[in-house]
Amino acid sequence: METTNIEVWNQHYLKPESKQSYPDECLVRLIRSLPGPDNALTSNHEASDPASSQESSQDPQASQASLSGPTSETSNDSYSNSAGPVYSKAKSGYALDFGCGSGRHIPLLLESGYQTTGCDSSINAVEHCKKTYSANFAVSRDHSIPSSGAKDGLYDVIVCWGVLHYMPPTQARRLLAVLSESLKPGGYLLGTFRKDSDTHFKYSAVSGSSIQLASEKQLQSLLSDQFSIYEYGFMERTVLGKLNQVIAHWFFRARKSVEATDRNI
């Protein structure tokens, strides 16, 4: 990440408004779509995706989420009428929140059953997380990734939420390569990229940071460099009372191949 961006984010994480407490709904649904202990990550079975176009966002101003990609298929949302905590389905393994920020996704990963590590380029963000959550945290310098704690040091799941669009495409491609290398075979990368229909960023609290907006074709190009199996969707919503300010993100789920034959799935 560029030095100017790091300075912007270090200042941002000193502000009260940066201390978000609730996980992103799209990530909650993606986490719930992953195989649990009875369906290992190394299985060729693809779980149905509750973030599919079958169900719109709970945000009344949000667009209907949609998924597409090389392995996309239509399926019913088996979680739409489920009761209890939204992330009560226990998983197992190791998870990394890369670019964890103030840590709003850490409880989601912990309560989903993962041994969780968070890292961020902002020292202030990491210090806040260490004081707030019972997980492992580290400062990431030049895309460095801490070990998972597993014997191989790799992760079953990596979350990269709201990170990739804050760096030039060459750095984003490099980071995706590093994240892929840090995944176990069959592991999943869950992430976002700012969509080219976004008009809100210049009004945001971190508008001083550089940003890259991606078309669908550009998103596909970024993901296909490292992953042959991926799906993606998008979320769009407006700011209350400001219909000209559209917040738009791509969100995606990419799976690392288990073996060479996976490339043909």
Structure explained in plain terms:
The protein is of the alpha/beta class. It contains six helices and eight strands, in the order ααββαβαββαβαββ. It has helices at residues 3-12, 25-33, 106-111, 123-132, 169-181, 216-224; strands at residues 66-68, 94-98, 115-120, 136-139, 155-160, 183-194, 229-239, 242-255. An eight-stranded mixed sheet has the order 1-7-8-6-5-2-3-4, sandwiched between helices. Mean pLDDT is 78; it is low at 38-66, 71-88 and 260-265.
Question: What characteristics describe this protein?
Answer:
6 helices; disordered C terminus
Task: Using the CA coordinates, give the radius of gyration.
Answer: 17 Å
- Using the alpha-carbon principal axes, give the shape: globular
Percent helix: 10-25%
Count all strands and give the number. Answer: 8
How confident overall, as mean pLDDT? 78
User: How many H/I helical runs?
Assistant: 6
Low-confidence stretches: 38-66, 71-88, 260-265
What does the main sheet amount to? 8 strands, mixed
Instruction: Give the helix/strand class.
Output: alpha/beta
Arrangement of strands in the largest sheet: 1-7-8-6-5-2-3-4
- How much of the polypeptide forms β-strand, as a percent range? 15-25%
The termini sit apart by 34 Å
